[in-house]
TrEMBL record:
Origin species: Xylaria bambusicola
Protein's recorded name: Heterokaryon incompatibility domain-containing protein
Segments forming domain Heterokaryon incompatibility: 48-201
Pfam families attached to this UniProt entry: HET (PF06985), Het-6_barrel (PF26639)
Signal peptide: none
Amino acid sequence: MASDMSLYQYLPLKPGRKIRVLKLAAEQESRDLEGELIHVDLDLDPEYSALSYVWGTELAPTKIKCNGHDIEVTENLAQALRHLRHESEPRYIWADALCINQEDAEEKGHQVALMKDIYAYAGEVAIWLGPDGERHVAELFAEVDEMLTLLEGSIENDFARLNGAQWVNFDTRPSPTSPILDKLALLFQREYFTRTWVIQEVGLANRPVAHCGKSVINFNKLAVLAMALLKYFRPLLSSLGYLKEFERVANLYRTYFPQPGSQRLYDIIHRARLNEVTDSRDKVYAFISHPSAREDASDFPYTGEGMPKLSMADEDIKLRALSVIVAPTADTWTSASLDHIGDHPLRPPSPDEVMARKLLRNPGRQLKAPRYWPGSSFIKPNYNLSVVDVYLDFAKQMITRTDSLEVLSFVQHNAPLSPTGPGFPSWVPRWDSPSDVAVLGGVKCDHFASANRRPVITPSPDPSSLIVRGQFFDRVGLHTIPLTRDDFTDDSKPSPLWSMSKRCRVDTYPIPDYPIIYVPGVVLTQSPDRMKAYRQTWTAGRTMGTGDGPRDYLNPELDFAAHELDYFRRKDRNQPITDIADLVRMMALEDEAKGGNGARYAEAAGNASHGRCFFITKAGLFGIGPKIIEPEDAVVILLGADVPFIIREKEKCGDNFGGWALIGECYVHGLMTGDTIRAWGGPDGDLKDITLC
């Protein structure tokens, strides 16, 4: 009992916007870490630095003395405080592990809700990357400064010459050397860049300063250089195997970036799925500060209102402007046309999306956009709730806020579903489940499977079930094993494109027509071209590339022919082709593949099919779907979603009998343009209520 009394006892914070700040004693005053936790009011503009760091894996390896009593902290936090404390005067620092009573769930929720202001109002956000054991970081930071000077000069010259075109010509100077890329990749592999909470801490910072040992650099510089290298030297980074490290830093920085393009909160959370948290609830709570989480905003707000309370230094403003130039923006992708939707009322664009499109016509305004907006979040942190309740409530709120079922596209099961027993509802995204599978649906989707119809949701007596209106179309017949990008891009592996060609009857001539779904009294626009259906299914119908970056203008016909020609040439090198049909086909491809890029098709197919299975429905339709797909699973289109889904019948749904498990989204060639829903979806149509549980 005596030892317990020596530990620090937190005094309750008064109501309002009160926080604790550590008054850290100077190094000259004490060799050990000592300080005083004081209560301050954010409304009175207290001076402090906010610490952004990784807690570390050690539970309680060391102690810091606060107000005369011990508080246990991790070794990583202790290291950060030792490096950050001033030599001769105290320093005021906010660090979550110290300044929040982690044992008080109610206080923790209240303080997490204030984090937006805590980091945005801080005079500096000190980013602790860890010690510099080999003392090479100072040299690296100097090289970063030098490269950014060259980058800025090149952009200014190009602007003057090309009247503001947003690109940089590096042809006149050598590419970055492998040694600096090696050192940057090694830095970006540190644990700091793998965590979830640091995304908001960097995103909200007016003055982010990275500390690595005794070396210091403006964090904006590291992020801007990472984005520039990704944009202009992506093939080089890919050849060195560093794409993952650089993309992680760029995504961390861009999450709060005022980019002119629609993004919703589930897009943000999905991109951070591979990042780690200690508490699974924080997969949602860590983004409470994001502008798209405001109560009065459905998408990212671009109004330019609510500038940060503290003015930014000129250097930071300049780096923010530079980051806008080197980062991919919405003008690199083309929205799908809505002209063919028909007479059904469209889901209206949000005010934020309208503002985003205005910014495209006036790009100068985006440089003034802040990363901080006033107003409360619709997410209310409550650490008394279970992970299931937090994720379930978030999914329901996103359906209401977006007036769509887009959030269902983020359901990506990594393991087979349990047939019975308690657990997560199958239709609720498991944000704590790592996934690098590209999303087919969402706000930037190219498809309109439900003809852009609003969702129709029937109240359910079971709070964990979702009753939605939709249409059943077919059942899964056969499918491949789960695929990876390497199955398409690794030349040493047999590509599924060729192993499935016989099953799909595209390797014989003449090739039979692709099945057409007939709707009484309706002439569908679907093409009977079976080879076209085969080519486009592997890339999920994408004809302009994949992902959030600049589109690569994929040409499915030419690029597929070039990819097939590459296959025959590799086959011929290993063993001369003697089959007459193969020789004839290879000769024909010499003309068909002119202007095509086989590697481009392989990459697009690999991105779309990664983590998925290719399948054929019982009616003969081609598709790619979830990795846990099984024969007899049903293919459905749900109103309010732009892509079809795979569902599986369940004997029991909660306390009721009969229902369906959501297996995941899919692409089915012939169901992506909304023709069938427009034909069947009238007042007397064949739409049904489907209970997901």
